[in-house]
Fold:
Amino acid sequence: MQQPSVLLVEDDAFQRKAAETYLTNHDLKVIAVENGAQMRRQISRAMPDLVLLDVQLPGQEDGFSLARWLRESNTRVGIIMLTASGDAGDKVQGLESGADDYVAKPYEPRELLARCKSVLRRSVNKATPARLERVRMGRHTLDLSRRALFDEANQDVPLTSGEFDILKTFAENPNRPLSRDWLLETTSHRSRDPFDRAIDLRITRIRRKIEPAPNKPTVIRTVRGIGYMFVPPME
Structure:
């Protein structure tokens, strides 16, 4: 079973290293950064399963604003706020920002681990879909078993193998921002160089096939600074 991935955002070097070491020793895959800018860069590469987010961070963004940005970008990722304040108002603000839980400093490492496991369990249950066969994409339907795309009239829409692989990846990760690098590595099994526009070109072709207005996409949306996100239609 793949280790759950945790992004720890903590500006205090001692606390960052202590938490990283403890959680790593308990079967979590931890990447630790010290500020919001580093957090955004890391998330542009890959979305973690859980983010541990210190409230008091250097720079222009505090933990609350970063939590709001993160929750707007992804509805599934787990978020736990870390703060030195025991103020109930801070706890409420953290939860209103989109966090799943709140841990006040100083905390026992065992408590932090227990909170991580609890939020990860909820995130997994929230993120695990039933076995997919047919997925609505705007007014179209992607048939995964037949590797085919159908329009409203149930007419087959031609797809290349690469286009289908991208749509399948989006179907399996709804409402989750996916980076260009991750999409290329997942669907083409190769790394992307800085001038590689293969994913952008495929997305452009896909949008022409499934979007009502390709220049104003609502099905495959651009997530600034990250990549693209599939937004399922509202039932």
Notes: The two ends are 33 Å apart (CA to CA). The helical segments are 13-24, 36-45, 63-73, 88-96, 109-127, 161-172, 180-188, 198-210.
